[in-house]
Amino acid sequence: MIQREQKMNKLTRLASGMIAATAISFSTLFSAPASAADSWKFPVLASDLRPSAMKPFEGKETEYQSLDSSEVTKKWNLCFLAPHTTNDILRAYIYGTVEESKRLGAKLTVFDAGGYGNLDKQLAQFDDCVTLGANAILLMAVSPTAFSQKISEARAKGIKVIDLNIGVDAPVDGRVVVTYIEVGKILGRELAKLHAKGSGPVSTVVMPGPAGVAWSEDTAKGFEKAIEGSDIKTEKVIYGGSSRLEQQPLVEDALTTYPKLGLVVGMGTSVEATLNALREQGRVGSIALYGSFITPDLIPAISSGDVAGVVVENSIIINKMAVDMAVRLLEGKATITDAVPAVTLVDKTNVDKVPASNFAPADWKVQLKVD
Fold first, then answer.
1. N or C: which end of the chain has fewer CB within 10 A?
2. Roughly what angle, to the nearest 10 degrees, separates helices 148-156 and 119-131?
3. How many domains are there within the chain?
């Protein structure tokens, strides 16, 4: 066991160096949005609006420039459809939506679907947005394909629809969508370098999120594609709810079923649950842990090296951008209508560059309405 732990600690140190070498500029990704008066700007990849988020994205580096609040001519009515509100990433998305709506003087209603399995509920909430007289709907869809007809009907009524974060296979008015296949590839590429063919077999489980949801399925696909030809063997892709409590029993079962795991790759909450289980077993450091998103609770564990690496986005700015894009479209002032925010890997050498402002304030209570 001691030899195994020494080996895993060495692998974790090697991974950390490789991640640091490939990371993009943190001053770019995590600096506060540059502002003039109350407007802001932020670097993105942008392209012409695709007819579907499933189409390849070929963006160019540019800056997204927000409206100044003085440029807004009326109080617009916005609706945000969130899949749930149960983890820190969703809280950050909602916080960004609420704060940007306040800045631009917009009315906002947030609907919580209560989980990725609640498609019928979110479809009904889309109808509620239309009934409430929404001028724009920000859609973080629980299904990439189920909203096509409703989106078409809403747009025919003049309602702007923004495809937010996850991606739908339908024409919309604007998109701010993270490419989760790339998230999986970022993780897979780093691990494939560390465990190249001939370096010795290492096994992993992949815990990407709920089954049938585009972002989790894409994370798994991207990872598997990137590790092709390496010595990494995926024992199982384990789907499950996105909260730590939902992940905990899945993690504990995986550790029992696959006692020789060298890696666990999963959501930030999967990593939290795995770290908790390893601490209880006195095995921290025996398995290298990699996350597809970060949570505030993971920052100390990354700093100490207990977690090897985590993909990070600027969560709040994603939804601020979607709100601004919606208002720009309504004002007839749209510039960028298809933007992909940058993501990168962090480890113990640079996690201190991830600011607290990337998350909702710890004492912030989820707000579902702005009048």
1. C
2. 0
3. 2
On whether both 70 and 169 belong to a single domain, the answer is yes
210: confidence class by pLDDT, cuts 50, 70, 90: very high
Instruction: Say yes or no: 191 and 271 in one domain.
Output: yes
3-class SS at 223? helix
Cα distance between the two ends of the chain:
59
User: Mean pLDDT throughout 321-339?
Assistant: 98
Residue 15 domain-assigned (yes or no): yes
Query: Where in the sequence is the domain holding 259, given as residue range(s)?
Result: 2-23+180-312
Closest to 109 in 3D by CA, of 88, 93, 90, 94: 94
| Half-sphere exposure (Cβ direction) of 207: Cα atoms closer than 13 Å | 32
Query: What is d(CA 221, CA 214) in angstroms, rounded to the nearest whole number?
Result: 10
Residue 13 has pLDDT above 70, yes or no: no
Q: Are residues 66 and 146 in the same domain?
A: yes
- pTM for this structure? 0.79
Q: In sequence order, which ranges of the chain are alpha helices (DSSP H)?
A: 2-22, 26-29, 88-103, 119-131, 148-156, 180-194, 214-226, 244-257, 268-281, 298-304, 315-331
CB 74 within 8 A of CB 104: no
Together in a domain, 162 and 280: no
| pLDDT of the residue at 178 | 84
CATH number at residue 279: 3.40.50.2300
| 219 and 293, same domain (yes or no) | yes
The verdict on 164 and 285 lying in the same domain is no
Greatest extent of the chain over all pairs of C-alpha atoms, in Å: 67
What per-residue confidence (pLDDT) applies to 354?
81
Residue 61's DSSP bridge partners are: 45
Supply φ then ψ for residue 36, to 5 degrees: -130, 125
